[in-house]
Amino acid sequence: MGEAASHACVIGLGWGDEGKGKIVDLLCADFDCVVRYNGGANAGHTVCIGDQTFALHLLPAGILHDGVEAVIGPGVALDPASLIEEIDTLAQRGRSIDGRLKISSRAHVVMPYHKIEDRISESEAASGQRIGTTARGIGPCYADKVRRHHAIRMVDLLDATFRDERLPQIVATRRETLRRLFGSDPDLDVAAIVDDARVWSERLGPMVCDTTTLLENAMNAGRRLLFEGANGCLLDIDHGTYPYVTSSTTSAAGIPTGAGVPPRTVTRVIGVCKAYATRVGEGPFVTELTDATGDWIRERGHEYGTTTGRPRRCGWFDAVATRYSARLSGTTEIALMHLDTLSGADSVGICTAYEIDGTKTDRMPCDTRTLQRAQPVFEMHPGWSESLRAAKSLRDLPANARRYLDRLQELVGVPIRLVSVGPERTQTLRLDR
Ligand code: IMP
User: Fold this and answer.
1) Of 26, 129, 232, 347, which has the maximum CB count within 10 A?
2) How far is residue 270's CA from residue 95's CA, in Å, rounded to a whole number?
3) The CATH number of the domain where 243 resides is what?
4) Residues 6+ apart with CB under 8 A from 206
C-alpha cells in the first residue's frame, strides 16, 4: 500500500445554506468518493455548472462529477420518493448516476407519516414553540430511529416479508397514533404505502449495500474520500441553538457514526461560511438585521430557501458563533462565500462580541434563552462599490474587501483558503497565503 490518502470534509459553520454544494463540487476533482453522513432531504445544495443550476437534496453534490462515486451513509434520513425524483430529474437533464450511487442498508427511511407528523406538529405548536422545520419528516424519522419499535431501515424496505407483514402493522399503528395525537384522520392508505415501498425497493435496491465495508475497502485501496456535511454546525442536535436545530449531528463529529468510518479518518476540515449570516426557520439570531439592510442582503444574495423557498433571515457576520462552530469541528481552513454580495454596501459589520445582561462576552452561551437576550457588539468596516465577479486572485479585490477578509480570518482564527465571488465554479479565488 502506498502513502495513506488524505480524506476531507466540507461542513457548514452557520445555520445551513452556506454554499457547501459549490465547494463540494469544486473540490471533487481531487477526490474519488463523496459521502453524505447526516440529515436528509431538508438539505438543499445548489451547484451551478455553465448555464445549468442543480438543486440537490439527498444526492451528494459530488455526483455531478462523472467518475466520482457517491455514498449515502447510515446516518442519513432517506426519503425514497424524494431520492427517486432527484435521480429522475438529473437523468432528464442528461446527468446519469449510472451505477455510481451507493446507499447504506443501515440508513433509516423517511416514511409518509413522518412528513405528516412533522407538518401537523409544527402547525399545532403554539407560536413561539415552532421550530420552523422544512417539513421533510426529518425529526420524526430520527425519533423513530431512537425509539426503535417502528423504525424502518433500507434493509427492511428490501425485505418482501417485512413489507407484506410488518409494514402494514407499522403504518396502521402510526395512523392511529397520529389520530390520537392530533384528533384528525391522517391521509394514510396502508395498501398504497405497501405498494410504494415495493416500487422504492425495486428502484433503489440495486444501489443498497454495506457502505461501511465499501468505504473501508476504498480507504485501503488508497481512494480519497470527501465527506459532505448537510445543514450547518449551529443546527447540530447537541451543540447547536437547541431546540431550534435539526435532528442530526451536523458537525464533523457526525462523520464517524454517520458514515461508519474510524474517528481519525478526516484530517482536512473545510468550514464553509458566508461573508454575512443567514438563518431560516425560528431561533435566536443575534446579528439579524430586520431593516432595509437585511432586505438588501436578501435580494442581492438571492437568500430564499433551496428546499422550501422561504425567505432567509439575514444579518452581519457573527464572529462569535462562527469561531465556536469552527472550533467544534476542528476546522483547518475556511471557504468564504458570497463576498461579491456585499459589493455596494457603504459599510459592512462584524459582530465581535455579545453583550448579555450588561456583560460582554466573546463566547457562545450554551443556553438558548441566554442567547436570545444577547445584543451584538458590531465593528463596522468601510465597504466597497466594485463588482468582484471577475476577480481571479486576492490582488484583484478592492483594499477594503481584503481588509474585511483579514479581519474575519483573525477573529475566527482559521485561515481562509477559498473565497467565492459568484455562483460559477470559475468564480472562486484560491488563497495560498
Ligand atoms: P428540520 O431539519 O426540517 O427538522 O428543520 C429544523 C431546523 O433546521 C429549521 O429551522 C430548518 O429551517 C433548519 N434547517 C434544516 N436543514 C437546513 C438546511 O439545509 N439549511 C438551512 N436550514 C435548515
Assistant:
1) 232
2) 27
3) 3.40.440.10
4) none
Asked if residue 92 and residue 126 are part of one domain, the reply reads no
| Alpha carbon separation from 89 to 110, 203, 291 (Å, rounded) | 20, 14, 38
15 C-alpha vs ligand 1 centroid, how far in Å? Answer: 8
In the three-class reduction of DSSP (H, G, I as helix; E, B as strand; rest coil), residue 373 is classed as helix
pTM: 0.95
Contact of 118 with 136, CB cutoff 8 Å: yes
Whether 296 and 381 map to the same domain: the answer is yes
Per-residue pLDDT reduced to its tens digit, 31-79: 999 999 999 999 988 888 878 888 899 999 989 998 999 999 999 999 9
Q: Count structural domains, the chain.
A: 3
Distance CA 33, CA 391 (A): 30
Q: Give residue 315 CA to ligand 1 midpoint distance, Å.
A: 18
End-to-end CA distance of the chain: 33
Full 3-state SS string of 178-224: HHHHHCCCCCCCHHHHHHHHHHHHHHHHHHEECHHHHHHHHHHCCCC
Residue from 10, 15, 82 to probe ligand 1 pocket by mutation (most atoms less than 8 Å from CB): 15
Domain interval for residue 150: 108-204
284 with 301, same domain? Answer: yes
Q: Which residues contact 112 (CB under 8 A, 6 or more apart)?
A: 137, 188, 193, 196
Q: Which amino acid is at 277?
A: A
How many whole angstroms from 307 Cα to the centroid of ligand 1? Answer: 9
What is the tally of helices (H) and strands (E) in the chain?
14, 20
